[in-house]
Amino acid sequence: MTLSRSRMTKVSTDQRERLAMSVERLDQSSDKIRERDLGQTFDSNITLPHYEKSPKKGQAVLFVGDLSYADNHPNHDNNRWDSWGRFSERSTAYQPWIWTTGNHELDFAPEIVKLLAPSMEKINRLSHSHIGTVLLTELQAAQNYSAYGKYTPQYSWLEEEFPKVNRTETPWLIVLNHSPWYNSYDYHYMKGETMRVMYEPWFVKNIVDVVFSGHVHAYERSERISNIAYTVVNGICSPVKDQSAPVYITIGDGGNIEGLTTKMTEPQPKFWHPVNDSPSSDS
């Protein structure tokens, strides 16, 4: 059946408890199905082989943008794309990689003719993918880098596709988006705010379960919250817990050339990120 408004506004306690347990298991198994901001460094060469050798690896890799970092080199050095392709081939040859664009793929320079994904469209790719009981929606706008407002292709596509989700066939609804909407680090702080304001009501209405993001080179996981009321002047925010809202997971620490993000905002908004990997965290 198609997900109706009544279904979307009523979330059973049992369902949310099951989803919470599943997210907790996903959080504890970092080598399952997600990758991020990988690049090609010594650290990258630890991250990907660790996943490849894991007996618990999942059915697919979800990659939330910033792949080869070739744009850090003159003219988007094609050799960097070739070496990254060889580096990732040990996994991509045997598993589907479902990816969204990051700011390092902003202009789709050489990758538009090289990277293949479940969607065969190479430009303006708007798609969703199925992995078992999971429906994945890949958002392609990298926040302030490209258009995502009303009447843009991405906005219109999502407006049309969300109501079609069949939560009986795919009870999990996961969104891949490069820049996080919620971020307690100084790095890229509030960079996704305008997109959050525009899209978050849809996510709550349609009971999106998890949003995976990268961009910030760190890890943290939110509680189920919505409609954060930011005070831009002083950075203070107060969360609203919402069981219809998604869990937001930032996973931008795959090993890229730019290094880890460690400095957090003060005071740290611990009420919405129960887990992070900052050196200052006691998690």
UniProtKB/TrEMBL annotation:
EC top class, as a word: hydrolase
Keywords tagged on the record: Glycoprotein, Signal
Protein name: acid phosphatase
Domain (Purple acid phosphatase C-terminal): residue spans on this chain: 245-271
InterPro entries reported in the protein's UniProt record: Calcineurin-like_PHP, Metallo-depent_PP-like, MPP_PAP, PAPs-like, PAPs_C
EC identifiers of the protein: 3.1.3.2
Cofactor: Zn(2+)
Catalysed reactions, semicolon-separated: a phosphate monoester + H2O = an alcohol + phosphate
Organism, as annotated: Brassica napus
GO MF assignments: acid phosphatase activity
Stretches assigned to the Calcineurin-like phosphoesterase domain: 49-219
Cross-referenced CDD domains: MPP_PAPs
